[in-house]
Specification:
The strands form three sheets. Strands 1-2-3 form a three-stranded antiparallel beta sheet, with no helix packed on it. It has six helices and eight strands, in the order ααβββααββαββαβ. The protein is about 30% helix and about 25% strand. The relative contact order is 0.09. It is of the alpha+beta class.
């Protein structure tokens, strides 16, 4: 009470009740080289994030107070999304396990994309249905399906839906709806 009166902090909301340890404490994000604004990757809400980067490594993520959607708040998943890029077990290379093999092997990303495209097109050709048994127009494939993930944003899911629909797939779903 004496400290409150001497400092002019009569309600005890300022320096009178702040310890030297508290005054010396700084945010772990204060050492960041830069801050990048982004959007949380988990659901379709689109909460704003501030991503703090030091030495080209993400050191912290917090809610963006300038976001009209989340106004600086994040759910537990959004607050922990730093683990998406910094998890020690995160795969950073394309891995492929050939049929019958026991071990995974690294694969060049361009080679992997070519393999995926070749298999996608072959499956589409093999399972294409132009009409049904009564001659009704179908123009679809039952050999391709898409299951989107919750770490994709609305725009990515929209483009995936457009791609698979244009390819003739009709089994298109997103994890957020399941």
């Amino acid at each position: 009470m004496v400290r409150q009166l001497r400092s002019g902090d009569v309600f005890g909301r300022g320096p009178a009740v702040t310890s030297p340890t508290t005054r010396a404490t700084t945010s772990r994000n204060a050492t960041a080289d830069r801050m990048v604004q982004s959007v949380c990757p988990y659901c379709a809400v689109g909460c704003g994030q501030r991503i703090f980067v030091k030495d080209e490594k993400v050191i912290g993520i917090e809610g963006d107070p300038d976001s009209p959607i989340s106004r600086g708040r994040l759910c537990p998943k959004g607050a922990a999304s730093e683990q998406l890029v910094n998890a020690p077990g995160r795969q950073t290379k394309v891995l492929y396990r050939p049929p019958g093999a026991r071990d995974w092997q690294p694969l060049d990303p361009d080679t992997a994309m070519d393999m995926i495209a070749d298999r996608f097109l072959a499956s589409r050709r093999r399972t294409w249905q132009d009409t049904d048994s009564q001659g009704r127009v179908l123009r679809r494939t039952m050999g391709i399906a898409s299951l989107g993930g919750a770490t994709l944003d609305n725009e990515e899911n929209y483009l995936i839906k457009k791609l698979f629909t244009a390819a003739g797939a009709i089994q298109i779903e997103n994890q957020a709806r399941i």
